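[Backbone geometry]
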Amino acid sequence: MRWGPAPHFFIKDYMAKQKIYTLQFGLLCLSSFLFFSSFNMIVPDLYDYLDSMGGGEYKGYIISLFTITAGLSRPFSGKLSDTIGRVPVMIIGAGVCFVMGFIYPVLGSVWALLLLRFFHGFSTGFKPTGTAAYIADIIPAHRRGEAMGYAGFFGSLGMAAGPGLGPKITEAFGIDIMFYTSSVVALLSVLILIGMKETLKDKERFRPALLKVSRNEILEPRVFNPSLLFLLTSFSFGAALTVMPDLAIEVGYDQGDKGIFFTIFVLASLAARILAGKTSDKYGRVIVLKYAAIAIIMADLMVAFTQTQEMFIASSIVFGLAVGMNTPTIYAWTIDLSLDHARGKGLATMYIALEIGIGLGAFTAGYIYSNEIQNIKYVFIVNAVLAATAFLFLNFGLNWMRGLIKEPA
């Protein structure tokens, strides 16, 4: 008799787990896959596109300008996500990608391209903020890391598919068709979002006054720790986006394969995202992030001394594993610390830190690199030092910060 209730308990627990991953969650993941495929598809060819205009020395701006706008738009996307809803914010982000793909082919100067990159950044300033808030609404707290891992899995598939497919399309049909293809992929993401159910309760109708952001609506102090960590560790990713296509050519890959780093990097991150998310749910966010920081240090040093295709592949794999551990865990930690009614602001703060890190990483990499392949070594040694700083912060800085910023239990 004492074991009678057990089957009922396990059946109930099993059903609860199954209900978490609904059709809505699946559609959200598919939309993310298409969104990340769209804007990442064009990245590998943008550097040659810029070279063809005579702007090779501005390669660091390709990513940094994109992330500047993404960061500037985060307070607005966070506030709108908490007021008009998650779905409209996601549609705005994916819609920007749809429009931008039609503008790239008509550009005629370096400065026009750089200006367009600035405006294109609005896409990632909106879509991921709405996505993360949506997931937080539909997933219980004790499984956030796992859910962020799965969602990141599909986003990462897009990040792998886009850069891998873009150069192939350019090689076969020309760069204009590649840009138009990116727009079509973004449109598919928008169409999925239009039919999704809104999760924000008590949402408001849009009015221009909502675009006014006060000082206390820009940053959420409660999420300072994960945000600072993201800033320090994302320098490496910004640098990789800037110089890895050139390094791929240097070690012997063809022009059509110059996006191979992104493909290997993302594929390696897929399993790590899911495993890290589940592990952080069980053992805590900080312990997983410590191992992630160590992996980022290792990846940076491996890239710094890469001279062969085998070393290039190995460093790409370690890079992917490191970011796959780091990203979903920081997302989940940020949501843990955010107030329920201000998740958008908390996530926006985290994303601002991410964009600053990627943007500065790309700009610094472009400055140090200066189109001299031997300088790549110094780019990633600097990034390794920053990742080591993140590791030290996780070990010695958290207790000090808790004395300044009260965190929820």
Remarks:
- The chain has one domain: 23-195+212-402.
- Residues 231 and 357 are 4 Å apart (CA to CA).
